[in-house]
């Protein structure tokens, strides 16, 4: 049978815009830190954005009165994200991210209801337990909503077209074995992303510097391990390269810049990008 969904193109690769894009975030702010530019970019292209926030992000605060204050501030921050990004925010309010049937059921049914074409989730090897466990829960939920009848799914199957792990400060992809890489160039949205993070996430001020440093990362990396050189052709402008300088968000890989050299780690090979 003919497949009417295919396009033959000669000069350009068509860009497919997901009608609905879902970002699953462990704490309020993970979505901006890891996917903010991507959300802004795809929203501008016409996607409807759904941010699912698992916890209220209060893990580190012991004193009750301080906790309430921070909780209120974070609520206001999320409200600002909602209005600034014009996205839908779904707060799950989990107090922990223990992997269990209740959470898997809730997220499975959320995906069935919203029907996102693309889902962005944390990486399963993230050092932060909340991120890591959320990744496992999300993976299992996506499996159930794509294939099974579990958790009331009869006749409600939904298979997303793409699921991607996003990079976070606690899961940098140069350390992830066998990286598959997709780089979303967010140059046009970088300043907006910074502005949102600067103005909205006041409770995260101390994190900001570290995160921005990470985003502009000039990672120290043993370049003597580079065993393959690939000729990298510069684009007409240098937006691609600038993307590598932290103006991009990385999905399951990273391009490392050391001085004026660029490297891509892939499995045990370090590719050195050489300007043509
Ligand atoms: Zn987080």
From TrEMBL:
SUPFAM superfamilies referenced in this protein's UniProt entry, alphabetically: LmbE-like (SSF102588)
InterPro entries reported for this sequence: GlcNAc_PI_deacetylase-related, LmbE-like_dom_sf
Protein name: PIG-L family deacetylase
